[in-house]
Amino acid sequence: MDEANVEDGRRKPSIHANDWNESLCGCFSDLKICCCGCWCLPRLFGENAEKIDGSSCVGMCLAYWLLAHCDLCWVPHLMKRKKLREKFHFKEDTAMDCLVAAFCAPCAVCQEARELKLRAGPLGNANVAPIRRQPIVAYRK
After folding, report:
1. pTM, whole model, 2 decimals?
2. What pLDDT shows up at residue 137?
3. Distance in angstroms between the alpha carbons of the first and the last residue of the chain
């Protein structure tokens, strides 16, 4: 097991900078993501796509669902997985990504969701700046 960081009294796994922290077969480590991936995979894919590069969640969900009917949903999945690798500077493995997107899509989408959740931290993907007090303006007489 990896060395753990302690933050707010909770143990948090250390994050590997250039590789997956979440296993492809670790679906049961987060049951909410696992259930969403099992029963509503296009939705989870859409949420992931939005977090990866700001794509429309609904648009990607519909595209994935429509392409799944002709066994081509692996195409957008492969593209988003590649963008995820670029975003987190993972080592490139196109052959494995093709195999995973084509034959293990539910597990791969769940892996990506868990990785995004882990790397987002406690604030999620919120783009938040610290609150600053406005300076008091004093006028001279």
Report:
1. 0.74
2. 80
3. 67
